[in-house]
TPM domain-containing protein (Ruegeria alba), 393 residues
Amino acid sequence: MTRQDIRVALTIVALVLGLGWAIGYGVGLMTRPASVVPENPPSEALKSPARKAPRAASTEGNIRYPDYEDVYVNDYADLLDPAAEERVRDRLIALYDHSGVEMTVLTIDNMGMYGHGGPIEPFATGLFNSWGIGNAERNDGVLVLVSRYDRKMRIEIGAGYDRSWDSRMQRVIDVGFLPYFRRDEYQLGIEAGVDETIRELTGAYPGDWDMGTAQRGWSWLARAVDRVGEWVLSLLLVPLGGVALWVRRYLRNRDRPCVQCRTPMLRAGEEADDEHLDGGQRLEEYLKSVDYDVWHCPDCGHIDIHRYKSWFSGYGACPQCNYRTLSTTSTVLSAATKSRSGRKRVDYDCAHCGHHDSEIRTIPKISDSNSSGSGRSSFGGGSSSGGGASGSW
C-alpha cells in the first residue's frame, strides 16, 4: 500500500468515525429524558433481607387482589416463556441494584376473575398499595400490569413521582408495549416495554448506565431499528457494506505509477502471482488468510507486491516466521463451576514453520447472582396516589 493509499484510507476512516460519533451523540442528546430518578442503590443493610413468605391476597370491598410469588415477575397469564421471564427478572434486578427502584411486572387473564369489572386504573392503584411496591419513604415503585383478555394495561407509579411522569409513562406504553400487543406479540412487547420503562426512569437502557452520550445514542438507534424490523437494518447495512467494498476495491485496483520510472504498472494474474511469492506467501493464499497482488513495470521490470489480509480468517500471525499461518485450538482441562474456576490449554501451531506453543488459561467461575436485588422477597411498603398511564389494544 502506497503513502497515498494510506492517506486516503485514513481520511475515510476518520470521516466515518467522526460521522458515527456525531450521529450517536446527537441522538443521545435528543432522546435523553428530561429528568431521571437519582441513583440510589440499596444500602448494605438491605442487601441480605430476611426471607419472608409472599403476602396473602388482600381484599378491598368485593375485589380480591392476587398475591405475589415473586417481587419482580408474576406471569399469571403465561405470556412469557421461562427464558424471557428470566431476562425480564434480570433487568428488574439490575434496575433495583442501580437505582433502588422497585419495579414489578404482573400479567393476569382478566380483572373480572378478581371481582373487578370497571376500568383498570383503580384496580392497578389498589393492587399497588396492597402489595406496597416501592420504598416507603421515596414512594418510587413502578407496577406494569397487563390484563390480557381485557386488552388493557397500566403502568402505575408511586406517589413520589410528579404529574409530569404520567405523560412519560404514556409515551412508554404507546412506543414500547402497544405496537407488539396489537399483534398479540405479548412476550416481545413486555420485554421491549420494560426496557423502555427503565430507560425513561434512568436515562439509559438496562446495562447501558456506564455508557457515554454517543454510545447511548447508538444503543437507542439499534433498538429503534429492531422495533421497526430487520428490513430497515438491511437497508442501512447494504449501502454501508457497498461503500466499504468500493473503497477496498478502489485502493486495490487503482492505477499506480512505478516508483522508479513513473511508468503505469500492470497487475499480474493469479497464476503469475505465484512466480513472485515465496512458500509462506503461497501458503497464506492457500489458507485464505492473506491475498497478494503483484504489480510489475513493463519498462524497467520493477516488481511491487501488495498484501491484503482477509477480514474473516481464523489464522493469526506466527511469532516465529510472521506469516498468517498460525492456528489456535483450545482444550478444556477442568470445567468451571459455581464454586471454582476451570482451566484450559490453548495450543498454537504454525502450518508454515512448524512453530508450536501452548499456555494454560483460567476459566472464570460460573457466576451465581448474589446481588441485593436477587435476595429480595418482599416490597418496601410504598404507595401510589393514582399516577401513571394506561393503554388498550
